[in-house]
Write a structure and sequence with these properties.
alpha/beta; 5-stranded mixed beta sheet; 9 strands
Length: about 300
């Protein structure tokens, strides 16, 4: 079953619904999808089972997929949220340390696929600092353009994840008091760092550690969970963000392993809201595809060094 062709029409339809209705619709769809034997659901269940080192009950998988679809149902209505509602929708742990890091320049955040990163970005733009980040160029192109326009409307600056983006990102954020959150709990570049997560080998992105080292800036790791709140008498779904400072060394691999180790117990505690539907554990990866990705990255590095 290919659900991709339904995604953009669903987002556009949700944009016309009251926010609480959109969330309930997303949760309902997620509960239905979570019961289907499709690859993304099976992969999420496998990822969560690896974290728990055991089989998960079906109700956990249903809740996890419902959490994922609730997140996406919120996206089209975020631009309608008032500042007062944003304040109610988001709880933050570690924000004081993050603000201190922002006092003289950018702060880098290694972010997991959890909670609702668009809601977090909207809130951060209003209550912490402007957000500059990178987005994977999704297919179809219309879907990528939709997400970019929605995030720009929320105040975020979005760069496409393509060749040269690391250098462009450095240029854009140097000397600015901005937050640079980078989804990093899965590698899409071929330059991933192998780490131990829940006692097993996984590949995560090198970007946050590499950028923090290159700019000599603070690095935080962040995971989110979904939480209930009420606004104008209606039940809504918000997020709780956990920011954790990470020691930055001169070594990308060491720094990457540090942020993964920092987040592992938080991911384990709030596992149901970890929306990882793609393979990241080495045993689940296609070795030939991984080899091709690494070869492409190595070739790009060689070509870049000659420019």
């Amino acid at each position: 079953m290919n659900i991709d062709r339904f995604v953009l029409p669903a987002f556009r339809a949700a944009g016309h619904l009251p926010p609480s209705v959109a969330e309930r619709a997303g949760r309902f769809v997620g509960n239905v999808i979570g019961r289907l034997p499709i690859t993304p659901v099976r992969q999420m269940a496998a990822n969560h089972a690896r974290i728990c080192s055991g089989q998960l009950p079906p109700r956990h998988v249903y809740r996890a997929v419902a959490s994922y679809f609730t997140m996406f149902a919120q996206t089209p209505v975020l631009t309608r949220m008032s500042d007062d509602e944003l304040k109610r929708a988001v709880r933050c742990h570690g924000c004081d340390a993050l603000r201190q890091g922002l006092s003289d320049g950018p702060v880098i955040v290694a972010l997991t696929h959890s909670g609702n990163w668009d809601l977090a970005g909207a809130w951060a733009c209003e209550h912490l600092a402007p957000v500059v980040t990178v987005a994977e160029e999704l297919q179809p192109r219309e879907l990528y353009d939709y997400f970019v326009s929605e995030r720009q409307a929320l105040g975020m600056e979005i760069l496409p994840a393509r060749r040269g983006v690391f250098h462009l990102l450095k240029e854009r954020v140097t000397g600015r008091r901005v937050i640079v959150p980078l989804l990093a709990d899965r590698d899409i570049t071929g330059a991933g760092i192998e780490v131990t997560l829940a006692g097993q080998q996984a590949l995560v992105a090198a970007g946050p550690a590499a950028l923090a080292i290159a700019l000599n800036r603070p690095l935080f790791a962040a995971h989110m969970r979904m939480i209930p709140y009420r606004f104008e008498g209606r039940a809504r779904t918000g997020i709780e963000i956990f920011f954790k400072p990470v020691t930055v060394s001169e070594d990308v691999e060491e720094t990457t392993r540090a942020w993964v180790g920092t987040l592992e117990p938080i991911i384990r505690k709030y596992l149901v809201d970890w929306h990882m539907m793609q393979p990241l554990f080495v045993d689940d990866l296609d070795p030939q595809r991984l080899a091709r990705a690494r070869a492409r990255h190595a070739q790009a590095q060689r070509e870049g060094s000659r420019e």
